[in-house]
Amino acid sequence: MADGGLRCACGRSVVEERIEEALGLTGVGKSLLDGSRWLSLLLVRELLAVGIPLDSILIEQEMGGDEVDCIANMNGELVLFELKDKEFSLGNAYSFGAKMGIIRPKHPVVATTQRVAEDAKEHFQRAASAGRPRQRLYYDDEGQPNPVRYIEGIDQLRPGIERLMSEINQKDAADILERVLSSAVIDTSAVVSHLS
Predict the structure, then answer these.
(1) Other CB atoms within 10 A of residue 112 CB
(2) Residues 134 and 143: beta-carbon distance below 8 Å
(3) Domains and CATH numbers, the chain
(4) CB-based contacts of 90: which residues, under 8 Å, 6+ apart?
(5) Which entry of 28, 46, 79, 137 is 20 to 30 Å from 20 by CA?
(6) Number of other CB atoms surrounding residue 122 within 10 Å
(7) In the chain, which residues have pLDDT < 50?
């Protein structure tokens, strides 16, 4: 092109211009970045890896104008995931608390690529201890609050999900053993803890 006399707008030959590399996003790349869809897809991959079937996972659902990142049925227990590709702040905690109040998950989980701000954690602790057990946003069968779980850092996503799945499986195993061994003098939680 320089041999043909092509010049830059500044008047120099194109061979004298500085060459720089540029990267552009494909359509797929843009769709993955839109709304942090990549994080939702990564979560689905990790849920599938621990044995949760695809038909037990809902991602990016709209509820009254607010988006719910992920709801999963993990062995019969409802898990609500809130995903953030940045720090999870107090403002995010208010929004997630409202979703918990509507959905009432057995296990509320915040997964963030960075960290959960301390004031957000304090907010959840105050909300869990306020009011009578039946008025709490999230509580277990005995009326005790289920704490919000935090998965901080993308490298902790799989271990965090595996820990939750393991706890659910241990509880299920203890419940089954309790029914089977109800007439025995064996402490079922001791049996489950030795098996795991």
Answers:
(1) 25
(2) yes
(3) 34-156 (3.40.1350.10)
(4) 117, 119, 120, 123
(5) 28
(6) 12
(7) 132, 134-137
Question: Which residue type occupies 160?
Answer: G
Q: Give the separation between CA 196 and CA 193, rounded to whole angstroms.
A: 5
Give the span between the Cα atoms of 59 and 176, in whole angstroms. 31
* H/E stretch holding 70: strand 66-74
CA 40-93-155 angle, 5° bins? 40
pLDDT in tens, 68-124: 999 999 999 999 999 999 999 999 999 998 898 888 899 999 999 999 999 999 998
The strand pair at 107-112 and 149-152 is best described as: parallel
State the DSSP string of 106-132.
SEEEEEESS-B-HHHHHHHHHHHHSS-
**pTM beyond 0.85, yes or no:** no
Q: Residue 138, SS3?
A: coil
